[in-house]
Structure formats: structure tokens, C-alpha cells
């Protein structure tokens, strides 16, 4: 019987690539996004279900659990970006980053753990970032949200192992094609007051032409590897830059 994987944040980028990869391998896929759009996945597949989800809403998560039914794997990929000088970031933005990237992931885990615990099987894969593998300027608040999930996941893996449920981390690098900076809630140029602009110039220039990057397919493959891992490995860096950072720690 085909297994079912549920993936959050599938409207583009890593989430969409992961959904397409598992579909191509014969899995049933529940792809979630705020506003489901079948056109994003081209041709119709009877193994694909698109469901609405706002990870910051308890009601939305509860409705998803009810609609999704049995799920073997949950991939928490949904997230938002925030780049700029921390001094210039309004606390409303900081809270929004944590609500989506950290608390949203935790809420999704809490929602799907019961069915997995009762079955004595299942897996949760939390997607973080290479900001958790090193120190990156202009990403203090965003880094904090991802470090929170790294610690949360490592602890959760221990307590759920007792019930036969696995928990994994996938750590993507920087993918220019996902337009992380351009899609931030507040443009980075609005968060670089005064002399911060001079400080940021070489950093942003380096991001414009990085030596190593991550592709969406790298993340999809890392999730696939994590799901099929039988060694108990917790962390799976995704992308050439992520692997280099992980090996250098």
C-alpha cells in the first residue's frame, strides 16, 4: 500500500519540489499551502491532494488533521524570511517570524504526533536552514527561529523514539532560485538604516554570486534520504553549500 506524505509550504521552492519528487516515486502526497492552486502542479494526479493550511492558525491546523486522515510522514517546510539589521527590525516582524517558522512547526508536530504514537510508526521531518550551521550576518531573528527548531527537533526525536516515531532535520543551503531575500516580508533595503548599508554591501554582493548553492531538487532528495534512512541519523544537510558547512563544523 502506498504511503502518504504531507508537506507544508508547497506553493513554490523546496516544498513544491519535494511534493513532485514523492509523487514521481508513487507516493500519495498531501500538499498544503495558504491558497491551494491546482495549476501549480500541472497535470492532475489521483495521488495528489491540495489542502489549505495556515500554520499560525490552530483552527486551520485542526481542519487539516481532520481532512488529511492517516499520514505516514509530515514534512514541515513552510516558512517566511527576514533579512536585515536586527536593530531596524520591528518586533512585529520578529514575532511573525517566530509564529510561522518556530511555533507553526511545533504546532504541526503536536497535531500529528497522536496518530503516529497510537500506530507506533511515522516520521516528522523539520526543514530548517544552514543558518543553524554557522553565523550569518543580517539574519539574526531568522537564525533564531531556525535554531529553535533544531533544538526542539533533537529533543523531540528522543521522546518519540520510545513510541516508534522518527524525527529528522533537513538543513537546506542558499538557493538563489527561491528568491529568499526578494520575497521577505519587509525588503532588506528597508532594514539597513544609516551605516548598516555600507556594512551590508559586500555581504549582499557575495550572496549575488555565491561559490556554492542549493537547488530545490537537493532539498527534495535530502527529504527522500531522511525518510528512507535506517541509521538513526538526525541531520541531513541539503545542497553543496550546506554539506560544506556541515563538514566544516
UniProtKB/TrEMBL annotation:
Source species, domain of life: Bacteria
Gene3D superfamilies assigned to the protein according to its UniProt record, in alphabetical order: NAD(P)-binding Rossmann-like Domain
InterPro entries: NAD(P)-bd_dom_sf, Sc_DH/Rdtase_CS, SDR_fam, SDR_oxidoreductase
GO molecular function: oxidoreductase activity
UniProt keyword list: Oxidoreductase
Family in the record: Belongs to the short-chain dehydrogenases/reductases (SDR) family.
Name the UniProt record assigns to this protein: SDR family oxidoreductase
Biological source species: Sphingobium fuliginis ATCC 27551
Amino acid at each position: 500500500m502506498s504511503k502518504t506524505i504531507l508537506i507544508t509550504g508547497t506553493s513554490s521552492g523546496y516544498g513544491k519540489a519535494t511534493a513532485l519528487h514523492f509523487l514521481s516515486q508513487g507516493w500519495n502526497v498531501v500538499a498544503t499551502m495558504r491558497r491551494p492552486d491546482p495549476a501549480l502542479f500541472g497535470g492532475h494526479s489521483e495521488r495528489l491532494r491540495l489542502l489549505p493550511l495556515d500554520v499560525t492558525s490552530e483552527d486551520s491546523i485542526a481542519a487539516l488533521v481532520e481532512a488529511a486522515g492517516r499520514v505516514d510522514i509530515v514534512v514541515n517546510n513552510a516558512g517566511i524570511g527576514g533579512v536585515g539589521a536586527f536593530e531596524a527590525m520591528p518586533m512585529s516582524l520578529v514575532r511573525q517570524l517566530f509564529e510561522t517558522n518556530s511555533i507553526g512547526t511545533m504546532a504541526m508536530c503536536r497535531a500529528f504526533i497522536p496518530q503516529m504514537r497510537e500506530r507506533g510508526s511515522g516520521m516528522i521531518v523539520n526543514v530548517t536552514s544552514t543558518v543553524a550551521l554557522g553565523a550569518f550576518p543580517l539574519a539574526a531573528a531568522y537564525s533564531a527561529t531556525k535554531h529553535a527548531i533544531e533544538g526542539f527537533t533533537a529533543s523531540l526525536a528522543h521522546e518519540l523514539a520510545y513510541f516508534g516515531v522518527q524525527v529528522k532535520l533537513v538543513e537546506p543551503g542558499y538557493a538563489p532560485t527561491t528568491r529568499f531575500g526578494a520575497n521577505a516580508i519587509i525588503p532588506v533595503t528597508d532594514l539597513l538604516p544609516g551605516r548598516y548599508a555600507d556594512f551590508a554591501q559586500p555581504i549582499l554582493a557575495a550572496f549575488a554570486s555565491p561559490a556554492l548553492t542549493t537547488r530545490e531538487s537537493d532539498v527534495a532528495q535530502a527529504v527522500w534520504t531522511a525518510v528512507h534512512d535506517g541509521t538513526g541519523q538526525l541531520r541531513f544537510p541539503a545542497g553543496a553549500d550546506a554539506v560544506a558547512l556541515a563538514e566544516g563544523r
